[in-house]
Amino acid sequence: MVREVTTLDRLSGGRFTLGVGLGHPPDCEFEFFGEDPSLKIRAEKLDESLEILDGLWSGNPFSFSGKHYHMDTVTFKPRPIQKPRVPIWCAGWWPKKAPFRRAARYDGAFPLGEKGKLKPEDFSDILDYVKEHRKTKGRFDLILLGRSRGISKHDSWIEDYEDAGASWFVELIMGADYDEYAKRISLGPPSQ
Fold this sequence. Notes:
- By secondary structure, this protein is α/β, with parallel strands linked by helices.
- It has two domains: 1-86, no CATH class; 90-192, no CATH class.
- It is built from seven helices and seven strands.
- Helix 4 (98-104) crosses helix 5.
């Protein structure tokens, strides 16, 4: 994955963002392929993988020895364009806290509602929680997943989430009218 993400970062001129998470549902994402479906094990592996990515993307000699992964010293070249590395957004089910402690170490959180749709107040709570655990300064993105209402209609409900800290909106297209979305995409990004 290190090489693939670096390639995408370079091809995009330094605009790539890596989204990570434990995967869901485990029976489709992991068990069919012989992987351990345990949340704890998958979380440990993800944390180690992210540490390895950070180390390799530094461009300096790097080795790793963890519970799940081991790696002799290697220097990875070329580095991604973005520094200190490609931004990483971590997905997680709110109100579970562990995924958001992980996100606090990186560049963004992609929250999903464990008990249904998240409210703007949830986004405020997530951002407060991340700020408590964040050790670095700099940009931190909070991503809202949803379905907007139409081509020309302004979605004021999105502004409520923006006011609560959401910095990106990702359009949900599963189960949607794809012809409608094709029309919307052809119009380009909405203007304010």
